[in-house]
Design goal:
- There is one protein chain.
- Strands 2-1-5-6-7-9-3 form a 7-stranded antiparallel β-sheet, with helices on one face. Strands 4-8 form a two-stranded antiparallel sheet.
- The longest helix is centred in the C-terminal third of the chain and has 24 residues.
- The protein has one domain.
- By secondary structure, it is an alpha+beta fold.
- The radius of gyration is 34 Å and the shape is globular.
- The protein is 43% helix and 24% strand.
- The termini are far apart.
Length: 208
């Protein structure tokens, strides 16, 4: 009887101390969206690969804990207007701990040893959250995304400088006559192309 009671007491502790299978669900993500101060931005394929590597490293050794947080959709949307956010989108509805979701929203911050995984269902982020206790932090993930944002801004500035239109001087008909005459005088002769053009004009006048 005592052994049975000991097993019932220790089993939940052993279960909570095991690596969370929640981490495995990130491998089934079909799309990842990134937001900074409410504006969506993109990563290149190389940056995407690096993000996934850093994110997986940050989650190593993490444990799923009881969900104390409850999200409200309107407050979540307001919170997304500042800071870095990552949205993981799934191809179908997933169920974990009897709670369904088709997307997960995470606020990426520094000095963070635990994160709320905000569940989304058909675009509505409301209800109980998952919580992961991290052995590491999201510092490297945060700094990587900040660096990507800064590089993106530099690229836009370079492209704008490159695409700046150049001034083009268009001469109206009749302009430059004096200049042509001066060139003729300097070169000691008439421009054959100019002379041919004038001859054509005289022929056209004659035919009219």
């Amino acid at each position: 009887m005592f052994k049975m009671l000991y097993f019932l007491m220790i089993f939940p502790i052993l279960l909570c101390s095991q690596p969370s299978s929640m981490i495995d669900l990130f491998s089934e993500v079909s799309m990842i969206e990134y937001y900074n101060d409410g504006e969506q931005f993109e990563l290149s394929p190389q940056q995407q690969e690096k993000f996934e590597e850093l994110f997986c490293q940050a989650l190593e050794g993490s444990r799923q804990m009881p969900a104390f947080g409850v999200s409200l959709h309107e407050l979540t949307m307001q919170s997304m207007q500042s800071g870095l956010w990552v949205k993981f989108i799934y191809p179908k509805t997933m169920i974990k701990s009897e709670m369904p979701f088709d997307s997960i929203l995470i606020n990426i911050t520094k000095d963070c040893h635990g994160i709320n995984l905000i569940r989304g269902n058909e675009g509505i982020f409301e209800g109980r959250c998952y919580y992961l206790d991290l052995e590491n932090t999201l510092d490297e993930v945060y700094q990587f995304l900040i660096d990507c944002l800064e590089k993106g801004e530099e690229k836009i500035e370079v492209e704008l400088d490159f695409e700046e239109p150049q001034e083009v001087l268009i001469k109206e008909d009749g302009e430059g006559g004096m200049e042509d005459e001066e060139n003729e005088d300097k070169e000691g002769g008439k421009d054959p192309l100019h002379e041919a053009s004038r001859s054509c004009n005289e022929i056209l006048k004659h035919l009219q």
